[in-house]
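Hello,

I think I submitted the adenosine-5'-diphosphate job twice by accident. Can you confirm which output corresponds to this input? Input:
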Amino acid sequence: MLGFLNDKLKKSDSQGTGKVIALMNQKGGVGKTTMAYNMAHALKSKGHKVLCIDMDPQFNFSLLFGEYVPDQLNVHHLLINSVRELKPMHTEAFLSEVIKKSSSGIDILCAGQELSGFELSVAGISGPRQLILKKFIESNALKERYDYIVIDGPPTLGLLVVNILCACDGVLFPFIPDAFSEQGLRNIRNVLLDIGEMGIVTPPKILGYIPNLFEARRKKSREDFNHIKDEFSDGEIFEPFMNRAHFARSMANKKSVFDYEASDYKELQGQFMNVVGSIENQLMS
Ligand SMILES: Nc1ncnc2c1ncn2[C@@H]1O[C@H](COP(=O)(O)OP(=O)(O)O)[C@@H](O)[C@H]1O
Ligand SMILES: [Mg+2]
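Support: Only one job matched these inputs. Its output is below.
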């Protein structure tokens, strides 16, 4: 009887209408972090309550928010602590002391280089290693507390990536229209297919592909773009983001494109608003 009640309580805990979205590509330098940061600000500007989770051991997302502090407890410690059999062996970590409120009003769970040891840390556990992040989000009722949870993924294909894909409702793939990025897309989409075949969770919806650093004047770039468009027809292909120095500059200044008034930035703001508008529609349920 008590067990039944506990189950019921757990289930109602995990409910919530918030959506988890992730920016993924096995290739680095394609704009995952840039897109995640600006999309989080776009969602915030539409009045949503937003939590960002940095899942890249290189913690660039955390640095952009200006919230990274070396040697502080981070999302890695929270995840390890959320596994009952690992908890006694590690420093205690509480969500309330790890979550940071950034000046933009967006909350952030920072990453740290410890995340690169995540796979090894959880290697021996008896429960499903793929579902640690999903269960962490559920047991802390994060989908009740936030409208959108934006995850910045690492440029790898291991257990961290599987955890992210199992935890999210929708996934976006930024890419540079070139052969390397195309291979990165193919590899991560295969992981997504494997997750579907495993049958342990409903795989996330492919919300779309975001072409970035597109050089419309170069024939090769146009050809590669068209090739990728043909091969990846299972999600929306968004309007390409061009290579823009002032875009990179805003990132270098740890600002989103929404912090600027100039017309170039207005155009980028519009592009990001289009992307999040599509996400809102696609995840409406
Ligand atoms: N459209 C763009 N125009 C100019 N620079 C960009 C653009 N998109 C990304 N960058 C820059 O490229 C670098 C890599 O982007 P980043 O978002 O860190 O990629 P990833 O997270 O996939 O490794 C960053 O320095 C970023 O500021
Ligand atoms: Mg990154």
